[in-house]
Design a protein that fits this description.
Largest sheet: 4 strands, antiparallel
Strand content: 25-35%
CATH class: Alpha Beta
Helix content: 25-40%
Number of helices: 2
CATH architecture: 2-Layer Sandwich
Oligomer: single chain
Structural class: alpha+beta
Distance between the termini: 33 Å
Number of strands: 4
CATH topology: Alpha-Beta Plaits
Order of helices and strands: EHEEHE
């Protein structure tokens, strides 16, 4: 499945969520990640997020697409988070 995940957490939890999301998905912009995950990996990610956030203060939204086939991605302006070429 293809996931777009966005989060809005208190500043003290941002580094933990950022580090966690980078283990599973590709960072594309501040607090925004995307990528392909299996059902099992997605369930693991959700459990780990639930262990970090505070339900009454933080918000994480995942847009789940069964396939990337019917999605289109456009960037207007500077593209953040793209892999850099290492020489």
């Amino acid at each position: 499945m293809y996931i777009i995940l966005v989060y809005d957490t208190e500043a003290k939890r941002n580094p933990k969520i950022l580090k966690l999301c980078r283990r599973y998905l590709t960072w594309v912009q501040n607090s925004v990640f995307e990528g392909e995950l299996t059902d099992a990996k997605y369930r693991m990610l959700k459990r780990e997020i639930e262990a970090i956030i505070e339900d009454d203060k933080d918000c994480v939204v995942a847009y789940v697409f069964r396939t990337k086939k019917y999605t289109k991605r456009e960037t207007i302006g500077v593209e953040k988070g793209k892999p850099s070429n290492i020489v």
